[in-house]
Structures are given as C-alpha cells and as structure tokens.
C-alpha cells in the first residue's frame, strides 16, 4: 500500500523551468562575464539558486543572487498556474490518506515565491528544499521515510529528470517521471525509466490503481 507520494516542483507541478532559465541568465551574465547558454544553466540544476549562481559567478555572486530573486518574481507571470490536473491529483491522494510532501531542489525563498504565486502554500504536508552544495533529494527522501515511518515500498516520488530517477533508484524507492513540461524530453526519460508519463491524467490513472 502506498502511504506517501512526494512531488518535485519545477517541471512537475508547474512549467516554471523557462522562467527559471530566463531569470538566471539575466541575473548571472553581468557577473559571469559572458552570456550563459541554456545548456550551461541547466547543468547547474539540482542545486538551489545560491549554489546555481555560485557555480557560474565567482565575484559578486551575492549581487547576482539578489538580481535573480527580483527577476524571478517579475517573470512569474510566465508561470501563473499549476499544470492542469495537478491540484485534482493531489486532492485525490489526500482523500485516500496519502501523505504528500514537496521535495524540490529549489531554495526556500524561490520555492515560497512560486507556491504563493500559484496558491499552493497550504497544499503540501511538508516542504523540503535543495542544497547549495549538492543534489540532496536522496537524503530528504530518507529523512521523510524515517520521520513518518514509511517503508521504501510505500513511497513514490514524482520528478522530471534522470537525476531524480537515479536518486530514487540508489535508495530503492519508486520514481515516476513527469514528461509534460514544455522542455521535457519524453523519449530520453522513457529510455532511462519506463515509468514516464506525458500527461497528468495518465499519471493519475496509474496512481489510482496503486492506492485502491
């Protein structure tokens, strides 16, 4: 029986990755000394925004970080709502007494901005954030399993990257991959993890069978 379903945020709950890339590029480029490519920015994903900025800016990273937050808030109209069906999916899980945490690589400040903008501040049972030093979803999942006394086979994580799938595999928990965002690569994700879904509706049908 499934007792906990954790969610990623960017690219899973909402289509915020294009906004993140634009906000980051505008903030970091003046301090990095060159225009940042999309590939260069995406390579920093998995760290929180402090770690991302520090990965490309050596001098003036604090100023670049402050600029990122301003850009992030101002650009949030690019991502004004969750993906269709996400709130209904989470409501369905909660109706079945499933614990629903958010486990994101974002930092606390940017995560809170997004949750407030999307009206999702109260929807998750717990919110765990990223680290500036390392990809920490593995340890955050282990923390939740221990805190709520949930067995590995009773837990599912919904992410959107190969990195998410690998983190789950390393500790023996199931990862379902979301491939419904604008920048998603369904073929690549499916090649790495067959449990890849191209619509929230498809995922909801799969989970309903797991929780009944």
UniProtKB/TrEMBL annotation:
<dbReference type="InterPro" id="IPR036412">
    <property type="entry name" value="HAD-like_sf"/>
</dbReference>
<dbReference type="InterPro" id="IPR050155">
    <property type="entry name" value="HAD-like_hydrolase_sf"/>
</dbReference>
<dbReference type="Pfam" id="PF13419">
    <property type="entry name" value="HAD_2"/>
</dbReference>
<dbReference type="GO" id="GO:0006281">
    <property type="term" value="P:DNA repair"/>
</dbReference>
<protein>
    <submittedName>
        <fullName>Phosphoglycolate phosphatase</fullName>
    </submittedName>
</protein>
<dbReference type="GO" id="GO:0008967">
    <property type="term" value="F:phosphoglycolate phosphatase activity"/>
</dbReference>
<dbReference type="InterPro" id="IPR023214">
    <property type="entry name" value="HAD_sf"/>
</dbReference>
<dbReference type="InterPro" id="IPR041492">
    <property type="entry name" value="HAD_2"/>
</dbReference>
<dbReference type="InterPro" id="IPR023198">
    <property type="entry name" value="PGP-like_dom2"/>
</dbReference>
<dbReference type="GO" id="GO:0005829">
    <property type="term" value="C:cytosol"/>
</dbReference>
